[in-house]
Design a protein that fits this description.
By secondary structure, this protein is an alpha+beta fold. The chain contains six helices and 17 strands. A hairpin with a 2-residue loop joins strand 15 and strand 16.
Length: 253
């Protein structure tokens, strides 16, 4: 007899092993072992298929007959320093952002190793999925020093879209903030997050990036937060990111 599968709800389904890992039960690899061993139940049915998906808001999940522990939602803003990797682990042993915050969370999106600035970390899987989904447009703001002085025509091209990998980037806000000998500081507003997008565009246009700092993610401002420091998001910031009121329990530092 086939194993029953958990209900799938459009836009909210998440793989069972990923959900268990996000709830802090165990690693994703260990979760796969538990599922295959028949130790996980969804809505009272034992699941052994790794392709099973669940809706965290609707489905009841038990491990070895026990309900999942209550998850205390945590939301942090980190000023990621240059040289730190914005992943959960690094095979080469380089420092990651998880070493800079006190709770078991994961980064929402990425900043490359050579960039610094605002990075959100949370254990809220639903919010993470929403913010990283391609259909979700969340404006992000960057301050960037580039080599040289981009001309008006170059800035206009950047604003209107640049072809990367045979696809135009979305229109962006680009303005000059200041200059110094041989360099220009730009403020750039983006609503998409293609891999190393600003650096690739700047290189292609002939004005390579010298330094890049993300100063805002939607309503969340980096402000005076020092590199390597973090703060808790406010209730209002989380609600604005999510687009609807949700209960926020502040984490203990």
């Amino acid at each position: 007899m086939k194993n029953p599968t958990a209900r799938v709800f459009m836009g909210t389904a998440i793989r069972l092993q990923k959900y268990l890992a996000s709830r802090g039960v165990c690693s994703r690899r260990r979760a796969e072992d538990l599922i295959q061993a028949g130790q996980v139940q969804v809505n009272g049915a034992t699941i052994t298929q790794l392709g099973t998906t669940v809706d965290p808001d609707q489905d009841e999940v038990h491990v070895a007959g026990q309900p999942l522990p209550i998850l205390q939602l945590r939301y942090y803003l980190l000023h990621k320093p240059v040289g730190v990797i914005s992943t959960c682990q690094d095979p080469w042993g380089r420092p990651t952002v998880l070493g800079l915050v006190p709770a078991k969370v994961h980064p929402v999106g990425r900043l490359d190793q050579d960039s610094s600035g605002a990075l959100i970390l949370t254990n809220d899987g639903a919010l993470t999925q929403k913010l990283t989904h391609p259909s979700h447009e969340c404006w992000k703001v960057y301050q960037v020093w580039v080599q040289g002085r981009p001309t008006a025509s170059v800035l206009s091209q950047w604003r209107n879209g640049v072809r990367l990998e045979d696809k135009l980037t979305l229109p962006a806000h680009v303005q000059v903030l200041s200059t110094r000998p041989g360099q220009t500081r730009l403020e750039i507003h983006l609503r998409e997050g293609r891999n190393r997008q600003i650096r690739r565009i700047a290189q292609q246009l002939g004005y390579p990036v010298e330094s890049l700092t993300r100063t805002a993610i939607g309503p969340v401002q980096l402000g005076a937060l020092a590199p390597g420091a973090y703060r808790l998001l406010t209730r209002a910031e989380v609600q604005q990111l999510d687009g609807a009121p949700i209960p926020v329990r502040r984490a203990h530092e």
